[in-house]
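General statements about sequence and structure are easier to judge against a single worked case. In the encoding step, the backbone of a single protein was reduced to a row of integers, each denoting a local shape. The record that follows shows the chain in one-letter code together with its fold in token form.
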Amino acid sequence: MADTNNTNIVTRFAPSPTGFLHVGGLRTALYSYLLAKKSGGRFILRIEDTDRARTVPGGVENILTSLSWAGVNPDEGVILRDGEASESGANGPYTQSHRLEIYKKYADELVAKGNAYYCFCTADRLAQVKEDRQANKLPPGYDGHCKNLSKEEVENKLKNGDNHVIRLAMPDDGVCTFHDLIRGEVSFKYSDVDDQVLLKSDGFPTYHLAVVVDDHHMQVSHVVRGEEWISSTPKHIYLYECLGWTPTLFAHLPLLLNSDRSKLSKRQGDVAVLDYKEKGYLPEALLNFVAFLGWNPGDEREMFTLDELVSEFSLEKVNKAGAVFNIEKLDWYNREYLKKLDDEKLLKYIDTFMPEVARNSVNYKNILPRLMHTLLERISKGSEIAETYTENISYFFEKEKIDEGMLVWKSLKDNPNALDITRGYIAEARAILEGMPVESWDDREAIKGALWPLTEKYGRGEVLWPLRVSLSCRDKSPDPFELCYILGREEVLNRI
């Protein structure tokens, strides 16, 4: 199988700005990037904006920002410069709406050669053709009506200014066979392939003409794209042949699936790359996770840097079957990468997601650096901090009302003097803590060592349970040694 054995591979990612960058698009961009970089080649970013009706304002910037955040940066093409879309490279323009004259030139050439023809069918006629084909249980497509118009009829219609498009004249018989770098040999009968519109009546090309012209002009050698484009490949290969060009090599990626094996779509939840950024997923985690959606190194390793992925990636190890998007696995990756952050970066990350009520606490700046590692054990992503704040975190920053009955350990429940006895234990614990050297409060083990003799004297539950409740006002919280370390001397003594 020919892929990374080639030198100087040139790939491209060519999204349409009809929405925000989907994680499926990120995977296509990543695989294209890895394939090119492993060979020492080039990765191009092209914008396919010929569907003007569906183009979304800010869509281009979102695509560029998403890729930049993930670390998948193009060598040439449309790039992000000072927060705005720009272009860099010798093969531009890289935005299709700026290349209309180029497409018209080749559309006219195809007509002149007899490989394409003018189609004057109205929208009403095309709708009727679609309806008739459905009624007769025929595959969808154009019926070839205008392919049979005489030269004189065509000239008269053009002279009259009749609205028209240019269609590709597919052969009536024969077979298109090509080698897919993931799926092997693939064949289609030409008779099953529609006469595709190449140039629309507004002068804009369809994807099929533009992609062939652009890939040739930009010297693209390998095209990595989703499996939904397999059935279009015969049209593209035929266009290459008609224009006398060598076709690119093709690799069609498997679908991304939900856990129920339905196609991953926006209707199923967050799928835009920046949605994951907003939820607190690290770019390294998302990229590592996405790399494994269809690809596997062939061993037990799961954690890869981008450079390691470049070194290890091969299309030979990409599966044909659909890849399930398992959010639990993404959460696992994110936890693993969060653990790798140094304290400065982790503090900045945690601080980003803390709610305003915590920030307003007088002890916020003192508590947060001590809390962050404990908090890290309880979350997989930053958005969970705010989501679970009241339940799991608020007591660190806000003094809460204590339920005195909750202070008593279960061994004393039947003792009529339980509360007074418990208060005595807490008072002794406070005296010990107050007498500790200030520097010992920076050491969990020192705090534990100071309190432990008291637990041996009265019992662990009898001492540690009411101490924990008096500090957290909760029946579920970290142990009292951890609470003392996080809250600090002044806050601990005040709460007790």
